[in-house]
Amino acid sequence: MCELLAMSANTPTDLCFSFTGLTRRGGETGPHKDGWGVAFYEGKGVRCFHDAGASASSRIAEVVQTHPIKSEVAICHIRQANVGAVSLANTHPFTRELWGRYWVFAHNGQLSGFSPQPGFYEPVGDTDSEALFCDMLNHLRRHCDRHAATEDVIRQLVQLAGSYARRGVFNLLLSNGDWLFTYCSTKMACITRRAPFGPARLKDADMVVDFESETTPDDIVSVIVTEPLTSDEIWDIYRPGEWRLWRRGEVVMAQAPTE
Amino acid sequence: MCELLAMSANTPTDLCFSFTGLTRRGGETGPHKDGWGVAFYEGKGVRCFHDAGASASSRIAEVVQTHPIKSEVAICHIRQANVGAVSLANTHPFTRELWGRYWVFAHNGQLSGFSPQPGFYEPVGDTDSEALFCDMLNHLRRHCDRHAATEDVIRQLVQLAGSYARRGVFNLLLSNGDWLFTYCSTKMACITRRAPFGPARLKDADMVVDFESETTPDDIVSVIVTEPLTSDEIWDIYRPGEWRLWRRGEVVMAQAPTE
What we know:
The structure is a homodimer. Chain A is an alpha+beta fold.
């Protein structure tokens, strides 16, 4: 399996702290050593870093840990390969352009017997994840247009995510640079940090940050992960089937399954 | 204007030497300080680095200079903005997926009054370069299919490049990871290094490399640029209107305009 990390913020914010914690799990405190990647939106542009090796010992991951790249939406993934060889083409997150925006996708899980409909977008590598991403974008192109309301796009995504989750494990991070859609099939947690900010300690590295010294009182920064990254904060746990749409650090649409 | 750099090799080869020379021109020995980017193919995957600042003082460019990333095809660009603001979305090279492959594009020049046909691929930023790239891929999708012979694809690209070059300056690097297409509208030079290898000295940095110590006798490595990067080698200068298709370090198709 793999682990996911995303950030949604109302001001450009770096991911150094969370990224440092997550990437230790790529070969050091965790087994996800078969590649890692991260995408940072900057305006409509997106900046990606990928490596097919272990993040815990990657020179490029070290630069991303220590060189603050500021973004309002970021998506990160560390991989433990199941479907598809260890290779750059199989390394999340994946990016495609749709309606003049870059869409970025990362996935944790595995589906059995998924065979996508032919469509415009095609996978380059051979993971089921990238095939699912292409399937989602092909579906959106067929059922929405570029002027569709966000609510309509999200309704389509929720239906699709639900149909995938019925066939396996499908924990999803998807962004178009404006919003961040998160879907929990089995495992996801989040935290929103806002004033008054306090310190936080990573579980996976000997690192404490005092967010108060790094933020302004108006900042709202949310982090969404597979497994909580800090040992001294309360994380909000998604329920299976729950989804949340984040924008500028806050949940703007959400639904948890009824009991 | 901008400067281009590409590499085609018959074995995975790093770009550290040429990249170091080119990136000095991004704010130090040259004025191209409005962003830089580089794409390295690894198998069918592609690894990109982009920055909207000056390459000569970029921490990420420094990592790419010193951390050998081995590739058979690489494309690099340093930007001096004319059309489009300085931003990540306007920073070359641009990437799109077509027929299950990543296509990478970088361009030097400017076209007057270019308005692309609507199509599937759309620019995210506001450079004429990215609009041209989308126009080329939309054209290929309309006129070829995924099983088209390389000759047919190249014939389409040559026609398109010629039509763009009649409307302005259009020096082009384009790859699908298998081959590298280069078109010279005004300025391009290349060099092919093979055994017996010798030393070479950069024009823009105090750096000499002895290729013999870094290669095997079977290696063939070609570098294509806007302006020669070394002071002690003979570069082959393209003529305006000339194009060459490179594969695994060698020219496999080419045409120079008749006198």
